[in-house]
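Exercise 3.2. Students should predict the tertiary structure of the chain below and write it as structure tokens, then compare their answer with the key that follows.

Predict this chain's 3D structure.
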Amino acid sequence: MKILIYEDKRFYWKEKDLQTQYGVIKEKDMKKAKSGTLIKTHLNKKFLVLDALYIDELKKIKRGPAIILPKDIGLILTLTGVNKDSTCLEAGSGSGFLTAYLANFCKKIYSYERKKEFYKLTEKNLEFLNIKNVILKNKDVYKKIEEKNLDLIVLDLPEPWNALSNVKKSLKSSCFLVCYLPTITQVIKLTKNLNGFIHEKTLELIEREWQTDLKRLRPKSQIIGHTGFLVFLRKI
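Answer key:
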């Protein structure tokens, strides 16, 4: 896949002719275009060509339910210390966005999704991204977790407290359970009963991007505000 940039507009290309309001670029010309070069449309508009990276391909997967955003995923990856040797489990795959990020950092991922439609969506997105180190399961972690000795478990579920006993059996001692919860009432209910876990911290991250045009150097009017709370628990 390639990225084409014209002024402040970005276009993604994978196959066939690229049709834009600034003109058409033929597929045969796109295949020959190298990263860092310019390519013209039939209207003589010049596009900068870049090779798409993994993070660019992630932007093109099909969406289903709300996803955990990169700002929150970054905290999960850095504060739990997972790495290329880690085996992790997530539940509530959704469209596979977090799944894909975890798969890019860790050795093996088990992903549980109880809803068939979201299971199929995640399956298609993992195929699109050519991810091979994820074992996707159409199963419910509230009922059972089959894997043991896991380095990290992430639950994007409305009632994670109902999975704590199963998580406790599957997670290594001292390792993290991270729960993503939209409301503070869910956080309170989770942290009231932590048999076998300690509460490390609860975080909320706000992202504010800056406008970098030198004539208008200031924060952008719109920010990414509250998306969810990240509750970091650690198995005793």
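Discussion points: The chain has a mean pLDDT of 93. The CA atoms of residues 79 and 232 lie 9 Å apart.
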